[in-house]
Predict the 3D structure of the following.
Amino acid sequence: MNPIHFIIACVTILVLLYVIRINIVHKQAKFIGRHGEKKVAKVLMQLPDEYTIFNDVYLLENDKSTQIDHVVLSPYGVFVIETKNYSGLIYGGEKAQYWTKDMFGTKYKFYNPLLQNYSHVRALYSLYGFPMQYFIPIVVFTNRAELLGDYSKHHVVYIDELISTIEAYQKVVFTESILADAIVRLSYSSFETSETVSIHKAQVKANIASYKMAVKEGVCPRCGGTLVRREGRYGSFWGCSNYPNCRFTLRT
C-alpha cells in the first residue's frame, strides 16, 4: 500500500473511532440523565393531590424549545426542578458559568445548573406572567453526588430532601381558578417526548375535578379536614379546621 494511502486510512480509522466514542459517551450520559429524572418523578408522586406534576416538559418560545425536567404547580407557587444524576464531588460558584464534577481525579465541566434552571423559570414566566417570586427553582442531585459548594441562597438539594423543600412553602399565592387555569395552560402550551402525555392530561382533569369537588363539599383538598369560615386582615376566607398543621386557605 502507498505510504500516503496508509496514513490516510489510519487517520480515517482514528477519526471514526473518536466519533464512535463520542456517540457512546453521549448516549451513556443521556441514559444516566433520564434515569435520574425518572427517580425524581417517582419521588414527586409522594406529594398530595393539590400538587400537579409535569415531567420532561418542552416549551416553545420565539421558535426555540426549552426542556424542563419537572414542573410542579401548586397553590403555593410554581416549582421548577432541574435534575442532575451525577457521581463524585460537585463544586462551582453560584454565578460561575460552569461547575465541576470530580470523579476520582477525573474532572468534567458542566453548565451551571442554577443558570440553566433560571432560563427555565424565564420561559415559564413568559408563559404565565406571574410575579417572579411565585416561581421556586430547585436543583436536585441524586445521592451519588457530594456537594461541596455553598448554595445556601438557593435550593440545591439531594433527592431525599426534595419533598420537604417543596412542602416548606405553605403560603397560598394562587386562587383555585388561577391554579386551574395555569394547569390547563401548561398542558396545552407544552409538548412531551415521552409517552406520558395522556397520563398528564388525565391527571390534570382529575386534580381539577377532585379539588373543586372537595371545596364544594366543604372538605379541605389538602388534608381532608373541614373548611371553616374565618375573618382575616383582608376579609373573610375559608380555612382548614386542622390549622396550624394544615394551612390551606381559600379566599371568597
